Amino acid sequence: MLILAVESSCDETAVALVRDGREIVTDQIFSQAALHAVYGGVVPEIASRSHVEVISQLADLALEKGGVTRKDIDAVAVTAAPGLIGALLVGVNFAKSAAMALGVPLIPVHHVRGHIAANYLAYPELEPPFVCLAISGGNTLICDVRDYTDVHILGGTRDDAAGECFDKTARVLGLGYPGGKPIDDLAQTGDDRKYILPIGHVDDNPYDMSFSGLKTAVINLAHTAEQKGEELDRASLAASFCRAVSDSLVPRTMQAVRTLGYGKLAVAGGVAANSRIRGDFQRACDKENVTLYVPPMRLCGDNAAMIGSQAYYEYLAGARAGTDLNAWANMEISEANFRGRA
Ligand code: KG4
After folding, report:
1. How much is the CA Rg of the chain, to the nearest whole Å?
2. Whole-model pTM?
3. Which of 96, 145, 158, 231 is buried deepest, with most CB atoms within 10 A?
């Protein structure tokens, strides 16, 4: 089954062709990062406009690069939630028109389920059940992936998402937007024990976490240094910050892996590209005899191939939408079955 998949939930416009949920025929991504960099974060209105400008050309390019014709497409999939509502609506409306014009089913997909599915593309042998930590710019969730379309939240952040924390910290360090990769690069030469940064603790759920205190601690350090006219060791601050984020994520996730006993852990989302976090998870999994799945860099960030992969399993489970499909800025991952929602 060949699925044409569309992703436009934030600042990447993406169109992919995916076969049977596991094979990427082509994956075209247009990143708007440069358009938003000057503002230090994503401007929703600019994001929506840019999606409108490129989405049709990107779909044409996907067909050309994939070497397929419109007649080869069996279904159209689209990210319908969660994300920036205006940005989502561009993709949803494009996908509705495409599905109607081609006379094929339309499959709505939850964005974070897509991030999890990036691992199905990278690892043909991976099948549920497994634990997944989804860490991106807008989400930080520890999930029990019981089946392809049966995903339960075990815990997550109570405030900022991990990626958001990276981006805000990068701004304080003058590293620009998006800040995850520059912090990761800067951290390579730093001493991760030079700055003692707080790791947020949340009382009533062992899998919940908090990143706002960490962000505030870095802001306070930077301001205090500025007021005293002191030079910050930026590389060591970046390294200490990466360590603090990792120390927040790894023990909680490993506790979930131990409790559920699946022996399999997947990590997904843009922050899964972080070298410190990848390394710490690899060490923890090796120690506990757990198989770790982390997508290659190009599948960590937003892309449409992951939407096409998840869409295949959503389709098999009966998810369909009509031309009245809406988009949702917020939607729980466990409720995103799109049966009767369209
Ligand atoms: O998954 P993604 O592309 O978009 C969302 O669905 O949110 O994730 C984007 C986030 C940004 O916050 C970005 O700074 C972060 O992923 N990121 C990283 C790295 N590369 C991207 N964070 C830490 N280390 C990295 N190497």
Report:
1. 20
2. 0.96
3. 145
